[in-house]
Amino acid sequence: MTEQFTRQCQEQRLAHSHTLKLQGVWTSWDGVNTPFDFSWKNILKVPPAVVSFALNASINYLKTPDVLRNSWGLKVSGTCAICTCQQATLFHILAGCSTALDQKRYWWRHDCVLLYIQSVLVSFLYDCNMKASPAQRDPVTWRL
Q1: CA-based nearest residue to 91, from 111, 64, 53
Q2: Residues 61-106: pLDDT tens digits?
Q3: Torsion over CA of 129, 130, 132 and 133, rounded to 10 degrees?
Q4: CB 18 within 8 A of CB 24
Q5: Would you give the distance in Å from CA 68 to the centre of its chain?
Q6: What is residue 27's three-state secondary structure?
Q7: Are 88 and 65 in contact (CB under 8 A)?
Q8: Alpha helices in the chain (DSSP H)
């Protein structure tokens, strides 16, 4: 009984989300099944700027050209600066610009994140190797 009530409430919320012009845009994104998990467990693990970005992105409140023009009424061009698409929406900027994809810009962003993770891991491994006594030292190294 409670499962049916919960499902009905979720369906009502989803139907309401479809009626929202700005905050309901996520309902039309293909391939997006679940939003970022905003549980306390996850929120406390990440920097506040990342949480702010994720929250604003989930309700389409980031200041994209499309939002500045349509919602805030500013006289800015709503076009994408890279491919001149007429509507530079949040989804277009983060993952949908075909020119950025062709120029491997998304790969560059992804690779920058991986390089940062690598630098943290190398530092961590170095610290672990230095803390071990010389007799116990069997160094762990990073291989490319």
Answers
A1: 64
A2: 788 887 777 777 777 787 788 888 887 888 888 778 888 888 888 7
A3: 130
A4: yes
A5: 20
A6: helix
A7: yes
A8: 2-19, 40-43, 48-58, 65-70, 90-91, 98-102, 105-131
Please provide the distance, in angstroms rounded to a whole number, between the alpha carbons at the two ends of the chain. Answer: 55
Predicted TM-score (pTM) of this structure: 0.47
The amino acid that residue 132 corresponds to is A
| CA separation for the pair 23, 138 (Å, rounded) | 54
Output DSSP code: residue 76.
-
| Residue whose structure tokens are 């989804």 | 91
CB contact set of 90 (below 8 Å; sequence gap of 6+): 25, 57, 60, 62, 64, 66, 67
- The identity of residue 126, as a single letter, is Y
- pLDDT tens, position by position, 43-60: 777 788 878 888 887 777
